[in-house]
Amino acid sequence: MTLYYSICFVLLMSELSLFATIVCPMPFTLRKRLFHFLSENPIIAKIQYGLKITFIFVAVLFVDALQRMIRIAQEGAAAKAKPEMTDVRTETNYAARRFYAQRNLYLTGATLFLSLILARVFYIILDFIHVQEAFTALQQKTAKQSGVNGEADEMRKRITELQRELDASNKGGRDFETLKKQADQQNKEYNRLADEHNKATGNVSNKRTD
């Protein structure tokens, strides 16, 4: 295996390891720290930029391996059309070339495909973490508002009770004033009747009951 295909193989193994790491079960806090580190760390950002350039070269290798695979397939078809010109050495050489072409095609294709899947899964999980954080903040805000609303309801109930007590006190005061007025009227009526009785009997009294 040549150097660039060896690098492609190492890249493929790294992608598989990273994919297994981000999809494995772990606590939400740990996952949040890991994804924030991968998405916000400046060193990781530089590594991602370098990997993007590397994947461009991997795409070039994929196209080259595909062209070789097509060319070898065409040579095999031409060899089958002329079976008298083939021997064991030629067939062995053709099988080896086809094997290497297929290996390079699968290696580069799997590396590119896994890079797309890895990027998509990474951003989906990152969006899920952001949504979960926003949902938690909304829950805390709602809980605070519920507490404030509960306190406001208690204050309203207390104000209603005090208002009822005040109304009852005012009603009691009005009843006392009514009784006082009735007593004064009865006292005046009693004095009037007493004066008439005294005049009728000829006994005039200078004492008046106020």
UniProtKB/TrEMBL annotation:
Residues 1-136 form the BAP29/BAP31 transmembrane domain. Residues 183-210 are annotated as: Disordered. Residues 183-199 have a biased composition (Basic and acidic residues). The chain crosses the membrane at residues 7-29, 49-66, 105-126. The keyword DNA-binding does not apply. Keywords: Coiled coil, Endoplasmic reticulum, ER-Golgi transport, Membrane, Protein transport, Transmembrane, Transmembrane helix, Transport. Its main location: endoplasmic reticulum. Pfam families: Bap31, Bap31_Bap29_C. Residues 157-205 form the Bap31/Bap29 cytoplasmic coiled-coil domain. One of its GO terms (biological process) is endoplasmic reticulum to Golgi vesicle-mediated transport. GO terms for cellular component: endoplasmic reticulum membrane. Residues 200-210 have a biased composition (Polar residues). It comes from the Eukaryota. It is a multi-pass membrane protein. InterPro entries: BAP29/BAP31, BAP29/BAP31_N, Bap31/Bap29_C. Belongs to the BCAP29/BCAP31 family. May play a role in anterograde transport of membrane proteins from the endoplasmic reticulum to the Golgi. This is Endoplasmic reticulum transmembrane protein. It comes from Dioszegia hungarica.
